[in-house]
Amino acid sequence: MRSPSSTRVFHGFAAGLAIMLASATGACASVLQVRVHDTHGAPVTDAVVSLQPLDRPAPPAHDALATMDQRNLSFVPQVLVVQTGSKVRFPNSDNVRHHVYSFSPAKRFELKLYAGNHASTVLFDHPGVDVLGCNIHDWMLGYVVVVDTPWFAKTGPEGVATLEAPRGRYTLQLWDARQDPATPPAGGTVILDGTPAQRQYTLALHPPELTNTAPPNLEIGLGDRAPSHAH
What we know:
The chain is mainly beta. It has two domains: 32-58 and 151-207, Carboxypeptidase-like, regulatory domain (Immunoglobulin-like); 60-148, Sandwich (Immunoglobulin-like), CATH 2.60.40.420. Helix content is 11%, strand content 42%. Residues 1-29 form the signal peptide. This is Methylamine utilization protein.
């Protein structure tokens, strides 16, 4: 049995070791701020920024579960970013039924007419951009962007995305649904050395064909309405 003094010494050593490990872990991380604007200087919202490590494999996703809701006859969020191997829920918070589908090569699936939380989760096991629609409401448009890395972020209203990743070399990849496909992809090699870093990119954008917004004065047919007992 340890004496009280030896117990205090042991606890003090353990606490000191924990602090040292925490400090070392924090020192290995770098914060990268990425600012994205269009050719007119306006901030770009919902651009996806990801960091693919060059010196080691990216850690895999473990039981990752994300959610893309359907509210006010729109996908929310319109752009969802997940790591390869993640599952996504598609709850329906509207009082009408939806029929979600994707014909994208990375993931083809259908969630036929349903209401509430009755749809199955979908496993996104291949990287790529999955374009989603609703077979009932043609204007609905969503994107599930699947990346092979846990280090990703989306730009906010100010056009800024902030990522935190271990020190090392990365390929920065930048994607936006409105980007001109004829232009070379933005990004390149980024070296993170433990100090804050910044990058800035300009994208040439086209207006989207669909807005993910319901038309004004829309009238919902009786066949679209969800049963009153659905949850």
